[in-house]
């Protein structure tokens, strides 16, 4: 099957997408993908085609790549968008560059649109071997997925069944020019060592090494799919409605998970946590064991890369984003007919006509007392205990005062003082949104 025919077959499910975007580095692989699609555009009815070049600014050689990509796109009649990104100075520059790149892609790709990237079969084989040497589990060894969600759209890798040799032959046949990244020859990078030192030796003894490793990755993706199906079955009983749905936090009932074997607990949690955070390696799953086995009156926390898992009230709660930032003192609420925006803590509004002022919103300091009709003066801490309010909520739960009199606690109409009864204080709590790609 020709590259054109293979590409068309692989992209058939996305022919009706509003637009196709090509991630164009200017290297061999993405140059071939761009040329293939531009050529097909002359004979096939395809979605509008655009190219995106991400300039990382990490090396002097890369400064000329945007101009090269512009000439290439101009020659093929494909619009090009050049985006410069800042790469965080961290230990793994490769990972930081990838994260910056995909954050930029996420901003560009619109609803239902597709980002096309040019990874091929040799990349798949390298990925499998690289992750195997790092001790990855089934999910990691499943390799590069052919498609996955990306923001409001999808990222598709239509060349995964093609070898680099095939792409090189196509480029030579059509007289294409491309840039070479000098860092690709640097043996200090683990992937380069595999590509230039290890794989040539593999190929000398096993000429089909890349193909067979890619096939193994496909088997592992199938196995991961079965594990995901099992996780969905195991999670279903745990996904009961939280008694505090207004918190808008991902949560699970704990007991259904405790009824599973440790292996199925980890599998279910991996599946649940995967969209929320980078997952820990096997050695760091001890954090789950500690959280699970803590004393019944404890409130343990398992800290992960992008957030925290809390155990409280017989549930697991995922906190990230604003939930990990201390809320600042609320501003004055001058226009009570409008919502009051709380720094790192959502917003507050009245349902009904607000009580007479002057009104202030504060957070707990300790020692607050509320005069409840029929019950007298009650300590706020005990009232929150009665309603089983999770500990991680209490320091950010908005309190309404008139002068120094506590009138009400947001979202808890049962905890209010003797003021007028024709209003309620509604708090829209912050979400976990931390802009994960």
Automatic annotation (TrEMBL):
EC number: 6.3.4.19
Iron-sulfur recorded as keyword: no
Gene3D superfamilies given in the database record: 1.20.59.20, HUPs (3.40.50.620)
Any Gene Ontology biological process: tRNA modification
Annotated binding of ATP, by residue: 25-30
Any one Pfam family match given in the protein's UniProt record, by short name: TilS_C
Record GO cellular component, one term: cytoplasm
Keywords: ATP-binding, Cytoplasm, Ligase, Nucleotide-binding, tRNA processing
Enzyme kind, highest EC tier: ligase
CDD domains assigned: TilS_N
Domain Lysidine-tRNA(Ile) synthetase C-terminal: 359-427
Record keyword Methyltransferase present: no
Localization terms from the record: Cytoplasm
GO molecular function, one term: tRNA(Ile)-lysidine synthase activity
Description of its domains: The N-terminal region contains the highly conserved SGGXDS motif, predicted to be a P-loop motif involved in ATP binding.
Family label: Belongs to the tRNA(Ile)-lysidine synthase family.
UniProt name for this protein: tRNA(Ile)-lysidine synthase
Species of the source: Pseudomonas turukhanskensis
């Amino acid at each position: 099957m020709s590259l054109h025919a293979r590409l068309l077959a692989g992209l058939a499910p996305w022919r009706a997408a509003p637009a196709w975007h090509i991630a164009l580095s200017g290297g061999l692989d993405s140059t071939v993908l761009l040329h293939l699609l531009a050529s097909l555009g002359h004979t096939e009815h395809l979605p509008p085609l655009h190219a995106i070049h991400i300039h990382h600014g990490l090396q002097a050689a890369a400064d000329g790549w945007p101009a090269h990509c512009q000439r290439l796109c101009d020659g093929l009649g494909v619009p090009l968008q050049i985006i410069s990104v800042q790469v965080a100075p961290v230990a793994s520059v490769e990972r930081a560059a990838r994260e910056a790149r995909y954050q930029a892609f996420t901003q560009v790709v619109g609803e239902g649109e597709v980002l096309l990237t040019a990874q091929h079969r040799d990349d798949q084989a390298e990925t499998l071997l690289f992750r195997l040497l790092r001790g990855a589990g089934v999910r990691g060894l499943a390799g590069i997925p052919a498609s996955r969600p990306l923001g409001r759209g999808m990222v598709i890798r239509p060349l995964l069944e093609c070898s680099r040799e095939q792409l090189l032959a196509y480029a030579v046949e059509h007289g294409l020019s491309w840039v070479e990244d000098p860092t690709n020859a640097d043996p200090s990078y683990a992937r380069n060592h595999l590509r230039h030192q290890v794989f040539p030796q593999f190929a000398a003894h096993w000429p089909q090494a890349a193909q067979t490793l890619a096939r193994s990755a496909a088997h592992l993706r199938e196995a991961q799919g079965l594990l995901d199906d099992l996780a969905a079955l195991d999670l279903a009983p745990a996904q009961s409605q939280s008694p505090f749905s207004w918190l808008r936090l991902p949560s699970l009932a704990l007991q259904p998970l405790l009824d599973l074997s440790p292996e199925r607990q980890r599998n279910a949690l991996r599946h649940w946590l995967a969209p929320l955070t980078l997952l820990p390696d096997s050695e760091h799953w001890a954090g789950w064991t500690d959280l699970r086995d803590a004393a019944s009156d404890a409130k343990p926390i398992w800290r992960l890369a992008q957030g925290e898992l809390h155990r409280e009230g017989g549930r697991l709660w995922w906190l990230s984003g604003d939930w990990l930032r201390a809320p600042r003192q609320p501003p004055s609420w001058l226009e009570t007919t409008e919502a009051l925006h709380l720094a790192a803590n959502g917003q507050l509004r009245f349902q009904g006509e607000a009580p007479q002022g002057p009104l202030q919103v504060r957070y707990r300091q300790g020692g607050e007392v509320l005069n409840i009709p029929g019950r007298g003066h009650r300590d706020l801490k005990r009232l929150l205990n009665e309603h089983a309010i999770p500990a991680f909520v209490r320091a950010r739960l908005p309190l309404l005062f008139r002068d120094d009199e506590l009138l009400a606690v947001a979202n808890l109409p049962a905890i209010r003082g003797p003021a007028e009864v024709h209003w309620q204080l509604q708090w829209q709590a912050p979400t976990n949104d931390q802009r994960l790609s």
